[in-house]
Structure formats: C-alpha cells, structure tokens
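4.2 Preliminary Data

To establish feasibility before requesting continued support, the project team ran the inverse folding procedure on a target of 468 residues. The structure was first converted into the token representation described in Section 3, and no sequence information of any kind was made available to the design step. The complete token record follows.
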C-alpha cells in the first residue's frame, strides 16, 4: 500500500488538498469542467443519436435526463472530489473511512477508471476523423461537392485502416503529451479561448443553415416531440448520453472537483457547466439538421452524420474552406480537452495507487488505450462483420466499436452514476452534504430528494426495461 493511500485513510484531507494546489478561480474550474464536457459527445454524437431516435421526443427526454439526473449527479461528484481531495478512487475511500463505511466503496471509482479506458480508446478514433477532415477542408476538397462525393470521402476514410490508424495515433499522442506534463498549466488558457471560438463557429454554421430553406423543418424535427417515435431503447440512449456528454459516471468531475476551492458554490458551477454543454449540443443540432433536410439526407445515417453534412455546408458557403478548416481544428481541441479528462483520472489513480511516476503512468495507460483503439479502427473496415457478443439479442449486429460505445455510455456510466448517487445520497451524512453544498435549505432538500429517490429509481427502471 502506498503512502498516498494510507494518508487518505488517515483522513488528512485538507492538507492533501492544499498540497495539490487549487484552481486559480471559479472560472478556471468552470473552464476545465466545460472543456471536459463539451466534446465529440455534443457535436458528433448528439446529432446522430437524435437522428437515429426520431428527433423531438428523444431531445425532450435527453433534456429531462440532463436536468433531473445529470445535474444532481454532477453536483454529487464534484462534492465527493472536493471533500475527498484526492484522485477519485482515493477520494471515495477517504470519505468512506471518514463516514465509517467499508473501503470497498472505492471500487465504485474503479468502475469509472475502467470506463475511462474503454471510452478513450474509441473516442480517440473519432478524434482522428476530425483531424483527417482538417486536411480535407484546408485543401479545398469540399468546395462545391455533391452529397454523394462528400459521402464518398467519408467512406473512403473509414475504408482505409492505415489512415485511421495514423490519425488515431496522433490524437492519442496529443492527449498523452498534455497529461504527462500535468494538466493544469495549459488547459485553462486553451479552453478559455477555444471554447468561445467553437461557439462562434457553430453560430456561423447555424447562420448558414438558416439560408438553406429547411431551418423550420429542422427546428420542428428537434423540438416537436412525436412520442410514437420514441422507443425504450431510445430512452436508455438519452439517459446514457446525459452521462456521456456531462462527463459523469467515471470520476472526471470528482478529479476536477478535488481542485475546487472551498468557497465556491458547487451548485452554481455545475449549473453553468450543464447549460453550456447543452447549448453546444443544441446548436450542433440546429447546424446539422437543416443541411440534412436540404440535401435529402437520412437523419438516421449513424456515426458518420456530421462528417456527411457539415462538409456539404462548408463546400457551399462563402469562405467555406476557411471556416471548415477552422471548425475541424476547433472540434479537435474540444475533443482533446475531453480526451485529456478521460486519461487524467486513470493516471492519477496509477500514481497514487501504484506509486508510478506521471510519465510512466501516462505512457502505460495511453498505450493500452491505443491498442484497444486499434480494434475499433479495424472494426470499421476489415473486421466490420465481427460482432463479439452478437449471440445476445441486446448486442446483435454490434461491431467492436459499437459495443464499446454501447457498453460505456449506456451501461458503465449510468451504473457509475447510480452508485455515486447512492453513495452520496444514502451513506454520507446530511450534515456533511449541507456544509459542502452551502445552498438554501429549500434548494438543498430538492437536490437531496432527487439524488436519493428519483435518480437511482430512474436509472434502475431504464436499466431493467432494457436489459431484461
Ligand atoms: N463529455 C465528453 C464529450 O461529450 C466525453 C467525456 C470526456 C466523457 N470525459 C468523460 C464521458 C468522462 C464520460 C466520462 O465528448
């Protein structure tokens, strides 16, 4: 047992926090948490799952999941991190011992470390797609292209394992470099410039989308719920995505929360992060669906949706090559800050738990993720008919890539979130929570009840419906 973990059990929390240094301000935490939350989940995944699940009703359920499940759990995670003052695994353990609980609770955070590995492996592959499109846009290949040739560019990329591998490797290397050097120094500044820039670029594309003549249809598709199109699996996907897009269920917000100064409101910061994250996702939807309808494309086209629609817009709008290049560069940055937040808790855990130094842990964890990513790369082409768990109806037709996405977003993250909700809602003392959250009694009791009753039941019900 390393020193770090025994001091965690001794409960030397305030001291440990002071030693690790804190975010420079409330803004810094918001920036880092937003950098983690806003990523491929908002711009790549949200539009395509919305398209696959029929639009409005799915969006409504997703928004409800953000407000009633995601936000309360985000607050719970940040709280655990700040109170524990360590990596997620040891924060859970420290609090468990402080509250007189079994140290076995630290396994909750260990589920998260596993989820992080699995997510980063395929996340990096998609990040690679974004890298590849920078070159495509910058060299003017998108200009004036038809929907077919834009589609052909995308299938050409997916069919080329060497290219995919190259970009996946580059993305993973970018993530590893930052994590190896310590996250805080560059991250704050990068996020504070790049996030607003991404926002502006999305607005520009939305502006273009308004000129296509199909904006109204897209708004109706996104915001007019048609419940006949909603399936129980759609509800599971919406719930899972609420966890995925807010970076919940694997300890990221715990890790970042452990650097949050005591005098900052957990509730306010969590609300801010959730709103910004949701705004980016909805903007992405408003940018993409008018293009889908204007060009007679299929909303349910799947994971390739943004790569088959946005390039069309960039090919047609004035200065499209420039905006397209910029857009994909910013998408890489958004994915990069998210990727960093996926690797960081794993590395912190290896440092504290196994006593490895930062470089060794980063390289080790990065290589394992990279290898798993290679399987995702191959599942897009050479192994496209390999479906490892295909004998179960639930996993029928799912390639390795699909399977990793499904297992993490729809099972591991909600499970991690459920356990955090139970841990905070049912095992920590109300007093500790009140002092940590420092909210008005009314708001506190709403949060407390939602976390104790609504969240666990909602996750459990959705699970039972889908898994049984
Ligand atoms: N939230 C990020 C996105 O939407 C992905 C992500 C980063 C994530 N860190 C995470 C998802 C931790 C779950 C858990 O792209």
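Position-by-position output of the design step:
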């Amino acid at each position: 047992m390393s020193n770090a973990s025994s001091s965690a059990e001794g409960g030397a929390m305030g001291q440990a926090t002071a030693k690790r240094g804190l975010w420079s301000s409330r803004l810094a935490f918001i920036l880092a948490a937003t950098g983690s939350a806003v990523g491929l989940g908002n711009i790549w995944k949200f539009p395509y799952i919305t398209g696959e699940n029929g639009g409005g009703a799915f969006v409504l359920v997703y928004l409800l999941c953000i407000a009633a499940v995601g936000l309360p759990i985000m607050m719970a995670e940040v709280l655990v991190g700040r109170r524990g003052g360590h990596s997620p695994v040891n924060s859970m353990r420290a609090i468990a011992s402080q509250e007189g609980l079994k140290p076995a609770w630290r396994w909750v955070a260990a589920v998260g470390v596993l989820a992080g590995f699995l997510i980063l492996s395929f996340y990096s592959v998609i990040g690679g797609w974004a890298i590849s499109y920078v070159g495509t846009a910058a060299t003017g290949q998108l200009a004036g292209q038809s929907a077919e040739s834009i589609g052909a560019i995308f299938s050409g990329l997916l069919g080329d394992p060497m290219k995919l591998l190259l970009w996946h490797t580059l993305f993973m290397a970018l993530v590893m470099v930052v994590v190896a050097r310590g996250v805080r120094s560059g991250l704050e500044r990068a996020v504070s410039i790049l996030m607003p820039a991404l926002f502006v670029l999305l607005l520009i594309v939305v502006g273009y989308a308004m000129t296509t003549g199909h904006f109204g249809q897209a708004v109706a598709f996104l915001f007019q719920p048609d419940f006949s199109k909603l399936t129980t699996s759609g509800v599971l996907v919406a719930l899972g995505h609420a966890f995925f897009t807010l970076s919940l269920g694997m300890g990221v917000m715990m890790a970042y929360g452990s650097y949050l100064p005591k005098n900052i409101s957990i509730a306010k910061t969590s609300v801010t992060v959730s709103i910004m994250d949701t705004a980016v996702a909805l903007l992405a939807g408003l940018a993409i669906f008018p293009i889908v309808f204007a060009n007679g494309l299929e909303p349910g086209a799947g994971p390739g949706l943004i790569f088959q629609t946005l390039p069309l817009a960039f090919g047609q709008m004035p200065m499209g090559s420039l905006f397209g290049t910029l857009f994909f560069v910013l998408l890489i940055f958004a994915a990069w800050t998210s990727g960093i937040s996926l690797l960081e808790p794993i590395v912190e855990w290896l440092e504290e738990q196994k006593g490895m130094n930062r470089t060794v842990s980063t390289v080790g964890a990065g290589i394992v993720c990279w290898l798993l990513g290679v399987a995702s790369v191959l599942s897009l082409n050479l192994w496209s008919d390999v479906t490892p768990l295909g004998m179960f109806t639930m996993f029928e037709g799912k390639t390795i890539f699909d399977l990793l996405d499904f297992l993490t977003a729809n099972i591991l993250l909600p499970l991690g979130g459920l356990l955090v909700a139970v841990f905070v809602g049912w095992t920590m003392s109300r007093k500790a929570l009140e002092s940590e959250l420092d909210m008005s009694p009314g708001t506190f009791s709403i949060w407390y009840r939602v976390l104790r009753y609504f969240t666990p039941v909602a996750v459990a019900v959705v699970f039972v419906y889908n898994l049984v």
